[in-house]
Automatic annotation (TrEMBL):
<feature type="binding site">
    <location>
        <position position="212"/>
    </location>
    <ligand>
        <name>Na(+)</name>
    </ligand>
</feature>
<protein>
    <submittedName>
        <fullName>TRAP-type mannitol/chloroaromatic compound transport system, substrate-binding protein</fullName>
    </submittedName>
</protein>
<dbReference type="GO" id="GO:0046872">
    <property type="term" value="F:metal ion binding"/>
</dbReference>
<dbReference type="InterPro" id="IPR018389">
    <property type="entry name" value="DctP_fam"/>
</dbReference>
<dbReference type="GO" id="GO:0031317">
    <property type="term" value="C:tripartite ATP-independent periplasmic transporter complex"/>
</dbReference>
<dbReference type="InterPro" id="IPR026289">
    <property type="entry name" value="SBP_TakP-like"/>
</dbReference>
<dbReference type="GO" id="GO:0055085">
    <property type="term" value="P:transmembrane transport"/>
</dbReference>
<feature type="binding site">
    <location>
        <position position="237"/>
    </location>
    <ligand>
        <name>substrate</name>
    </ligand>
</feature>
<dbReference type="InterPro" id="IPR038404">
    <property type="entry name" value="TRAP_DctP_sf"/>
</dbReference>
<keyword id="KW-0732">Signal</keyword>
<feature type="binding site">
    <location>
        <position position="211"/>
    </location>
    <ligand>
        <name>substrate</name>
    </ligand>
</feature>
<feature type="binding site">
    <location>
        <position position="173"/>
    </location>
    <ligand>
        <name>substrate</name>
    </ligand>
</feature>
<feature type="binding site">
    <location>
        <position position="152"/>
    </location>
    <ligand>
        <name>substrate</name>
    </ligand>
</feature>
<dbReference type="Pfam" id="PF03480">
    <property type="entry name" value="DctP"/>
</dbReference>
<feature type="signal peptide">
    <location>
        <begin position="1"/>
        <end position="27"/>
    </location>
</feature>
<keyword id="KW-0479">Metal-binding</keyword>
Length: 367
């Protein structure tokens, strides 16, 4: 009996110790996260949606303290802060980091190529997710894409742009390295401004026209108050991706279950963001029209010319950097592969049917 009791006590002690170790291993962690977006830009809602989901789903193991862009540091500094671990995470738009690696540009957006469903397909099923990990991984980060919006509004200002001929000599605010190169080929010049500066730049005539994001975001930023004309479609950013940069060391400290929870929250936010943005864009378009903004649409011939210029810019960039080439090679391979099904479903297909894509062979020659 004594031996049995002693064994039971020893087993109980071991169980308590094991439970304590297990509890310590899964103790709640706290992260600090910021973003590139200030409170007055609606894109911050995508970051907030993901954070709220994570805090609900993984609250026992992880709580994220979210701060709006600019409250902890300038938006330009969040990449370095996340890379070094000064903060654990930050929301971003990958195109802001194209100066570090041009591959960030197509990870953020494309000119006259992907729409929102293309990005969703590519990220989820055609190898896109792995490429985000490869590019951000070089900077000690894990990346979870969690936001997709369809094409940008287009250009708004007080000078009508009804054809690409009207771009000649115009100063236009737009983001993205590849986007600026296409604009230059069309005769315009790129002006780089922070999102919060576009309103005043249009109002004061510093730029001939400008853009920031989708119609919903642009309307809430007040563009209808300062712009008389709106040129569509937003060919320069045919879709955009947003996500969260996570310091690799902080990520590795999470349990596999919590890591999976963060991925699930990212997938859910991605689906939500696309529908949210499309609803918001629809309502804003009606408001722009009610406010008297005059809308024009480029012709099919002009859009074909833009596609030609885009293809040249993609090939040029591919031969400047092998990682840039690798990302575009994957994207165009997806477009060609998906066409097998996509093009026999017209007019009910979900993504664009394009018969003029950059040459995969020429991209491969630069890889």
């Amino acid at each position: 009996m004594k031996k049995t009791a002693k064994f039971a006590i020893t087993s109980l002690a071991a169980g308590v110790a094991l439970a304590a170790i297990s509890s310590t291993a899964h103790a709640q962690q706290e992260w600090t996260m910021t973003t590139t977006w200030p409170d007055n830009l609606d894109l911050i809602k995508i970051d907030q949606h993901w954070v709220e989901l994570v805090n609900q789903l993984a609250g026992d193991e992880l709580q994220i303290n979210f701060r709006a862009g600019g409250t902890l540091m300038p938006g330009t500094e969040v990449f370095d802060a996340t890379e070094t671990g000064s903060i654990q995470a930050s929301g971003d738009w990958p195109g802001y980091w194209a100066g570090r690696n041009p591959a960030f540009s197509p990870l953020a957006t494309t000119t006259s190529l992907f729409n929102g469903v293309d990005y969703l397909n590519w990220i989820q099923q055609w190898g896109g997710w792995d490429l985000y990990q490869e590019v951000y991984g070089d900077y000690n980060m894990v990346y979870l894409p969690y936001g997709i919006t369809n094409n940008e509004s287009g250009f708004m200002g007080n000078t009508p742009i009804e054809s690409i001929a009207d771009l000649e000599g115009k100063r236009l605010r737009l983001s993205g390295r590849d986007q600026g190169r296409v604009l230059e080929k069309l005769g315009g010049s790129q002006v780089t401004l922070a999102g919060g500066e576009v309103y005043q730049a249009i109002e004061r005539g510093v730029i001939d026209a400008g853009e920031f994001s989708t119609p919903g975001v642009d309307y809430n930023a007040g563009f209808s108050e300062v712009a008389d004309y709106w040129s569509t479609p937003g060919w320069h950013q045919s879709a955009s991706v947003f996500g969260v940069m996570i310091n690799k060391d902080a990520w590795d400290e999470l349990s596999e279950e919590t890591q999976e929870t963060l991925k699930i929250a990212a997938d859910a936010t991605m689906a939500w963001s696309l529908a949210w943005s499309e609803r918001q864009s629809t309502e804003a378009t009606v408001k722009f029209q009610e406010d008297g903004v005059e809308i024009s649409t480029l012709s099919a011939e002009d859009l074909a010319t833009i596609q030609d210029a885009t293809n040249e810019v993609i090939l040029r960039g591919a031969c400047e950097d092998p990682m840039h080439a690798k990302v575009y090679h994957s994207m165009i391979s997806y477009m060609e592969h998906y066409a097998s099904w996509r093009d026999i479903t017209v007019p009910f297909n979900m993504t664009r049917s394009i018969d003029n894509l950059p040459s995969l062979e020429e991209i491969e020659a630069c890889m």
